[in-house]
Amino acid sequence: MSKVEIGSDRIYYPMPCSLVGANVAGKANYLTVAWFSMVNPEPAYLAVAMNKAHYTNSGIKTNGTFSVNIPSSDMAEKTDYCGMVSGRKFDKAAIFETFYGKLETAPMIKEFPFNVECRLVQTVDLPAEELFIGEIIAAYCDESCLTEGAPDLNKINPFVLIMPDKKYRGLGQDIGAAWEIGKKLIKK
Amino acid sequence: MSKVEIGSDRIYYPMPCSLVGANVAGKANYLTVAWFSMVNPEPAYLAVAMNKAHYTNSGIKTNGTFSVNIPSSDMAEKTDYCGMVSGRKFDKAAIFETFYGKLETAPMIKEFPFNVECRLVQTVDLPAEELFIGEIIAAYCDESCLTEGAPDLNKINPFVLIMPDKKYRGLGQDIGAAWEIGKKLIKK
């Protein structure tokens, strides 16, 4: 197997797709974000990286709140749209039904099966992006996407973005059980 | 569609799987990490969240370097294993062939199709985790996983972790073209 050094402009991996919500000037706005991750288990923190040019950032900083909404695959067109136009010119919230939760200023998307609302904990200033670290204050799931009371990603049916293909892809075949299939390699 | 408030202990999404590499006490060690993301495009920064208890963290802080290695689905067992045992007790690097690049202290896994080596830019101290932000200094790909000179995720064949199922899943069906399928929603 031969290794080739390639351009170091990014790391390639399946990037989860979300819409980040914030109130900007008192009105709900949503931005497509594929650069996010859980970053702390307890309290539950997640981090979202958003280019400083985006309209949504100012709302997050003003209110100290935001949401992350996980779309199902049949919401891919709406998800894609929200990454192509700016809230400065388009009323992106018009294509969704918005609801609010405990924080009152973090708009969430009713049609998306899984939503969390976050309180901004810290903003890390990066060269082109702001990395917003938020504590998950409450989480909401469509009743139809629960299995034994827990969100079921098989029912939520999320998707990832892959580059440089610029393609959205669904969840694929079962590769194995985590914290299980590696056990055979543990030498006692 | 009825929304149910559920426990706010995490957000559910397809988490990309990687092994983070660092030299600890001069020896290569690898840790399974599913909490990472790109966070800045230029310079290319990524962030990895790692619990403070992990052995690998000290190596990252000592050397100021680390790697992120993307496994193919046939490396799922080895990936799983590296998340179940500690480098304090097990020589996890023994199951891989390690190579080094420009930074000289960021060990990378030859068998994994895609690897980046990073210089530590910033460490964000979180309650349980350290969030290491690194600049990608160089990237390497198996020649067999390139298409027209760029890494091809269809060939790399990566996988994600889904919770609470504790399952690894491959890439699924094509949902549509990004920056394309949403165009029809743009009102001129």
Describe this structure in words.
Two copies of one chain form a homodimer. The mean pLDDT of chain A is 96. Chain A is 10% helix and 46% strand. A seven-stranded antiparallel beta sheet of chain A has the order 4-3-7-10-11-6-5. Chain A contains three helices and 15 strands. Chain A has helices at 56-63, 76-81, 153-156; strands at residues 3-6, 15-16, 18-24, 27-33, 36-40, 45-51, 65-70, 98-99, 108-109, 114-125, 129-142, 146-147, 150-151, 159-162, 167-177. With 188 residues, chain A is mainly beta. Chains A and B meet through strand 1, strand 2, strand 5, strand 6 and helix 2 of A and strand 1, strand 2, strand 5, strand 6 and helix 2 of B. Strand 1 of chain A pairs antiparallel with strand 11 (129-142) of chain B.
